[in-house]
């Protein structure tokens, strides 16, 4: 029975229930439809609620979650396409029923069933809507680096490219960019960020400003926001951990932290990538190099400097617009640009302030810039002044601030001498707790380096100097007057104005910097609080009296100070004065009011016309007395009363003939005595008669003396054991020596003219010789081996050695007879050998590896027996050599020689190269027997060469692949042997490893040289970076170079006295000269045109984009510059000089465009003589001259004119028409006739 029941149940389950469910669709039709309507309404309500949340999220800048967007799309489709259509159809079905029709049971069943299913789907979507806890999210917004106003100047592109290169370097993880405020660091870094994203170097770039008062929490927040990270942690360490975790998950990332002022702990912020950080870089910017290098540990730092004058002009003109085109505005604009001194923010601010302004506003702006009150110009205070003031305020010590204020007193663009600052700072009492001058000097040097690192000072033109940017100077002068009562007044008128306003009553420092020599000074100045006072006659404040200006000239005292006199009571009301400087004034007699200043510490009377100075002895507290360049004739005994004196400077007092006895020995506290170029009439001890002058023995009583600059006419005057071990710095000249080596880096210098060999036996000279860092020797010697006869230890401290006109020296080092290899000149930096007529070898015998290991410069001239410089074994160790110059050595055959028995030579199979990895300059002149730069010969065949071998030698290229110069910049070859080929095209290593970086090339007096490069051997790298080229007296040249040679970076081209040249170059070569600035062609008798006309060229153009100056003279066969039909364009040409070209009928047959050329300069014979004298100068570029930017700085308006030369206006604005007119109408005067007459 149970089985029957179970079977019945199953039958019921599979038959009755389905039937009941199907019948239910009919019976519950209305309920199912209403249920669907209810669910649809609930769905619409859920959708509306969701839309409210979405609208709110969008207003907050949030992105909608993808599943929410998908749900809305499904729901919209469900409502519009299915549900609403169904309900509409259902309504129509009901209408049929209501109208009396019998219900369609099949349709009702189908629709009821569909309604129930749809209701379930709608319910599911409603449930899904309830599961959306968040409908939106805050997106990670990619940083957009819009660099508004960025201009790709050459000076910036060079730095930008180097930064990009560093970012690609896997070994570099941190990079620094530094420069003064407003120079454009931030803008440059934004451009870097923009380019790294465009070039896809990094997946992301984040830039955050740190500022002077950094907040770690704010920095963390900004970095996190730009990476799409929400920092919910409250503590800084917790946030750092979260940020660090996020950074390490990034694929590749560049983080730029802008404007860092002090050490910033990146780990504390959370900026850390772990050990595997090749895909992550950090770029930091700061005003201080010291912060980057020392505090942040960044070893690779790039300086962003000011703009060049041409770049500054372009930026200014771009902002000002059409206003600058007015003729009345142009000269004002030029002066205003100069006052801004290349600082971009100053240029932009002033330019924006002057746009569309009147002539009067421009004149007022220039006036305010000149008188250092630029804050009155709109925008200058908030954009320029405040930024520099911030740099000043951030200096860590009051000493640094005070020293910077002193630097601002020097005139614009001055070289600020550290020695000058030392005198001011010491006298002013700037350094507390420092009693010795050398300690004070170290302090000044340290502060100057700190100020340079902060970009508030710049490097000077000479060692021991600094410079100050003009805009920083203006701001600093303003700070000094407003905050510190330090006034820099330019003239008496300003002084009187300040007196009338009682402005100077509280002044502590005053400078009268440009007093006219015809003005009358007030009888008395009431400066009761002034501690530092300076007065200068016409010359700028603190005119530099450095060695560089005084080497080759003596002052003519009569031209200084004769008309500007100081009233007798002038200083009576300056009782607090500590530092007094008077420059180029008349002090005959000295004003008596000076001697009432008993607190005076420093007295400097420079280039003054001085009479009696005995009363200076009354200034008992004086510590520094500096009379440099004055006309003093006698140092009287009263000076001996200055027992507190630490420094006595009598440098370049050429009229000083009397120094009273016992004065010097009385100055027992003296630490530094400078008598360079001054008194030399020392009394000879033992001579009978009146003792009129001091003797050298007095110096032995100065037990505190550490620095001595002295001139002694004869070694016979030297007392025994005169020289002291205590002297830390000295510059001693003994004998008739007229040369001074400009090496201020070395503190121990000895110049000695030798008369006899035993001069070194007494006086302590041998000790001085060994201690010296700079050594100059001349005269008859009595020795032939410098090292072993003068210092057997090999001069271990010597840095600069010059041997001049010494008879008898055969070797600098001769160790042939020694058992052990010689160690000598291990610290030598510069070696100069001149007029050593007996010198056969510099080195003879075995040397240790470190000999000459630091040699940087070698210059050899007029050593007629010298056949070579160094052997191969020595040459391979000259890794620091930067310059080789050899001139006038008659028998020299090679620079580097290699013998088969050389202990360090190797076989040809191994082929070891001689690398000169740092050589920049190679100059070889007047070496008539020179065969090759490097040669390798058999030892036993050295003196057995046959004529055939000599001929073969002369046919060889001068250089070959065994010698490499990867950084050679300047090459000069003048009157060198029988040179036919400089390098051979088949030498594969030469073009890239030797000469691809060549910037300057001078070829002169090489009559057998046939070409610069063999046209049969093509290379893309020859002369690729050449910037200056000079060819002179090379008669076998037919033209300058093969047509495929590109001179794409050439800026200066000078060709002269090469009579074989028919033309200079082809049109294809001319088209490559896009950077050429100056072209001069002179005295080439066969040249008939400059650019060769091939006859088949049509429809093109030759454009010299940058050419400024074109000179053609003494070309008797020249008919035209170019006789072809190509259009010629010279968009920047401003000066064309023509002289003595009688056959020149036109400039070109085709169209010539010269929009900036208005006149021709016609050179007559007198001007030709002046120009001709400069034709033999080398075309050597100075250190640091790397780009067209440097050349543009050298070109001024004066460079474009020749004084009294004849000017011819262009006729109809066309150079062709003008030249034809001059040819036809050459009767207009003698000067013009000379144009066409040889």
From TrEMBL:
Q: Domain named Disease resistance protein At4g27190-like leucine-rich repeats: which ranges? A: 838-932, 964-1043, 1046-1147
Going by the UniProt record, its keywords in alphabetical order are: ATP-binding, Coiled coil, Nucleotide-binding, Plant defense, Repeat
Q: Which residues form the NB-ARC domain?
A: 159-322
Per its UniProt record, what InterPro entries does this chain match? Apaf_helical (IPR042197), At4g27190-like_LRR (IPR057135), LRR_dom_sf (IPR032675), LRR_R13L4/SHOC2-like (IPR055414), NB-ARC (IPR002182), P-loop_NTPase (IPR027417), Plant_NBS-LRR (IPR050905)
Q: Which residues form a coiled coil?
A: 40-67
Pfam families tied to this protein: LRR_14, LRR_RPS2, NB-ARC
Q: Where is the Disease resistance R13L4/SHOC-2-like LRR domain?
A: 616-720
Q: Which SUPFAM superfamilies match?
A: L domain-like, P-loop containing nucleoside triphosphate hydrolases
Q: Does the keyword Signal apply?
A: no
Family of the protein in this entry: Belongs to the disease resistance NB-LRR family.
Query: What is this protein called in UniProt?
Result: Probable disease resistance protein At4g27220
Report the source organism.
Ziziphus jujuba (Chinese jujube)
Quote the gene name from the UniProt entry: LOC107413007
């Amino acid at each position: 029975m149970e089985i029957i029941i179970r079977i019945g149940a199953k039958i019921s389950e599979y038959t009755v229930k389905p039937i009941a469910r199907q019948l239910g669709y009919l019976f519950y039709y209305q309920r199912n439809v209403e249920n669907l309507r209810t669910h649809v309404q609930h769905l619409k309500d859920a959708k509306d609620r969701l839309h409210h949340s979405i609208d709110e999220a969008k207003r907050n800048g949030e992105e909608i979650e993808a599943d929410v967007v998908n749900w809305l799309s499904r729901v919209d489709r469900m409502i519009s396409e299915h549900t609403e259509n169904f309900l509409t159809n259902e309504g129509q079905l009901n209408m049929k029923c209501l109208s009396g029709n019998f219900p369609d049971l099949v349709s009702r069943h189908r629709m009821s069933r569909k309604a129930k299913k749809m209701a379930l789907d709608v319910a599911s979507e409603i449930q899904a809507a309830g599961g959306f806890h968040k409908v939106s999210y805050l997106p990670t917004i990619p940083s957009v680096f819009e660099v508004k106003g960025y201009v790709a100047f050459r000076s910036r592109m060079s730095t930008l490219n180097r930064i990009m290169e560093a970012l690609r370097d896997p070994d570099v993880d941190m990079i620094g960019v530094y420069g003064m405020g407003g120079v454009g660091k931030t803008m440059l870094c934004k451009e870097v960020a923009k380019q790294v994203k465009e070039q896809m170097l990094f997946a992301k770039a984040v830039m955050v400003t740190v500022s002077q008062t950094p907040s770690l929490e704010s920095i963390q927040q900004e970095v996190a926001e730009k990476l799409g990270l929400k920092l919910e942690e409250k503590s800084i360490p917790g946030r750092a951990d979260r940020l660090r975790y996020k950074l390490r998950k990034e694929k590749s990332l560049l983080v730029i932290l802008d404007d860092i002022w002090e050490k910033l702990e990146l780990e504390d912020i959370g900026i850390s990538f772990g050990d595997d950080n090749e895909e992550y870089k950090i770029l930091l910017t700061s005003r201080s190099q010291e912060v980057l290098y020392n505090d942040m540990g960044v070893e690779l730092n790039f300086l962003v400097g000011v703009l060049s004058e041409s770049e500054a002009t372009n930026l200014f003109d771009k902002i000002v617009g059409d206003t600058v085109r007015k003729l009345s505005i142009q000269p004002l604009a030029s002066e205003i640009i100069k006052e801004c001194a290349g600082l971009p923010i100053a240029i932009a601010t002033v330019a924006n302030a002057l746009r569309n302004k009147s002539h009067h506003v421009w004149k007022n702006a220039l006036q305010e810039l000149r008188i250092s009150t630029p804050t009155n110009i709109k925008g200058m205070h908030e954009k320029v002044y405040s930024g520099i003031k911030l740099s000043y305020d951030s200096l860590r010590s009051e000493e640094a601030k005070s020293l910077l204020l002193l630097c601002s007193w020097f005139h614009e663009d001055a070289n600020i001498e550290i020695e000058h600052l030392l005198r001011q700072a010491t006298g002013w009492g700037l350094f507390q707790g420092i009693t010795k001058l050398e300690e004070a000097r170290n302090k000044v040097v340290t502060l100057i380096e700190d100020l340079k690192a902060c970009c508030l000072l710049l490097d000077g033109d000479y060692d021991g100097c600094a410079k100050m940017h003009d805009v920083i100077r203006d701001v600093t002068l303003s700070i000094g007057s407003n905050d510190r009562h330090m006034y820099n007044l330019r003239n008496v008128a300003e002084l009187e104005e300040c007196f009338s306003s009682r402005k100077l009553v509280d002044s502590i420092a005053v400078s009268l910097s440009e007093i006219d020599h015809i003005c009358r000074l007030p009888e008395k100045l009431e400066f009761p609080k002034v501690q530092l006072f300076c007065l200068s006659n016409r010359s700028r404040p603190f005119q530099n009296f450095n060695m560089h200006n005084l080497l080759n000239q003596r002052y003519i005292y009569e031209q200084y100070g004769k008309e500007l006199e100081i009233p007798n009571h002038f200083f009576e009301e300056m009782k607090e004065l500590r530092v007094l400087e008077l420059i180029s004034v008349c002090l005959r007699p000295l004003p008596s009011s000076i001697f009432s200043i008993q607190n005076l510490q420093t007295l400097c009377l420079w280039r003054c016309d001085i009479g009696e100075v005995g009363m200076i002895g009354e200034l008992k507290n004086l510590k520094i007395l500096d009379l440099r360049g004055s006309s003093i004739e006698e140092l009287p005994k009263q000076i001996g009363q200055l027992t507190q004196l630490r420094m006595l400077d009598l440098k370049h007092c050429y009229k000083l003939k009397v120094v009273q006895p016992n004065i010097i020995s009385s100055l027992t506290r003296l630490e530094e005595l400078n008598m360079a170029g001054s008194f030399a009439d020392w009394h000879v001890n033992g001579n009978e008669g009146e003792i009129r002058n001091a003797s050298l023995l007095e110096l032995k009583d100065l037990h505190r003396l550490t620095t001595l600059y002295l001139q002694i006419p004869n070694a016979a005057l030297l007392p025994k054991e005169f020289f002291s071990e205590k002297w830390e710095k000295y510059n001693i000249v003994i004998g008739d020596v007229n040369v001074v080596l400009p090496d201020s880096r070395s503190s121990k210098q000895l110049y000695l003219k030798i008369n006899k060999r035993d001069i070194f036996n007494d006086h302590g000279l041998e000790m001085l010789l060994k201690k010296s860092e700079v050594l100059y020797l001349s005269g008859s010697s009595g020795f032939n081996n410098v090292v072993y006869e003068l210092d057997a230890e090999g001069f271990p401290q010597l840095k600069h050695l010059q041997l001049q006109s010494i008879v008898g020296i055969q070797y600098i080092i001769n160790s042939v007879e020694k058992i052990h290899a010689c160690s000598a000149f291990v610290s030598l930096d510069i070696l100069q050998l001149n007029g050593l007529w007996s010198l056969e070898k510099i080195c003879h015998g075995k040397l240790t590896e470190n000999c000459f290991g630091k040699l940087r410069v070698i210059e050899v001239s007029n050593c007629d027996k010298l056949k070579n410089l160094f052997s191969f074994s020595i040459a391979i160790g000259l890794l620091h050599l930067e310059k080789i110059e050899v001139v006038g050595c008659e028998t020299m055959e090679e620079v580097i020689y290699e013998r088969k028995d050389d202990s360090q030579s190797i076989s040809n199979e191994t082929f070891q190269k001689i690398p000169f990895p740092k050589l920049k300059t190679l100059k070889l002149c007047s070496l008539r027997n020179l065969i090759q730069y490097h040669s390798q010969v058999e030892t036993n065949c050295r003196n057995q060469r046959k004529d055939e071998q000599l001929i073969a030698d002369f046919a060889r290229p001068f250089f070959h692949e065994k010698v490499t110069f990867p950084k050679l910049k300047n090459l000069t070859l003048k009157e060198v042997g029988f040179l036919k080929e400089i390098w051979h095209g088949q030498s594969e290593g030469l073009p890239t490893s030797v000469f691809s970086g060549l910037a300057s090339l001078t070829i002169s007096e090489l009559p057998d040289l046939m070409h610069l490069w063999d046209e049969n051997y093509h290379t893309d790298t020859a002369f690729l970076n050449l910037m200056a080229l000079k060819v002179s007296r090379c008669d076998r040249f037919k033209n300058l170079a093969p047509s495929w040679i590109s001179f794409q970076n050439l800026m200066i081209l000078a060709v002269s006295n090469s009579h074989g040249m028919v033309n200079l170059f082809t049109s294809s070569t001319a088209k490559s000269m896009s950077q050429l600035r100056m072209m001069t062609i002179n005295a080439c008798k066969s040249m008939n045109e400059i650019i060769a006309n091939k006859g088949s060229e049509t429809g093109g153009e030759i454009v010299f984009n940058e050419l400024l100056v074109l000179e053609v003279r003494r070309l008797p066969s020249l008919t035209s510059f170019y006789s072809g039909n190509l259009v010629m364009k010279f968009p920047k040409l401003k000066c064309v000089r023509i002289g003595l070209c009688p056959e020149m009928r036109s400039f070109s047959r085709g169209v010539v465009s010269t929009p900036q050329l208005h006149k021709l300069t016609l050179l007559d014979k007198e001007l030709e003589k002046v120009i001709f004298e400069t034709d033999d100068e080398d075309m050597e570029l100075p250190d640091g001259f790397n780009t067209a930017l440097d050349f543009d700085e050298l070109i001024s308006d004066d460079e474009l004119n020749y004084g009294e030369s004849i000017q011819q206006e262009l006729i109809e604005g066309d150079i062709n028409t003008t030249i034809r007119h001059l040819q036809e109408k050459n009767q207009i005067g003698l000067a013009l006739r000379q144009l066409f007459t040889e």
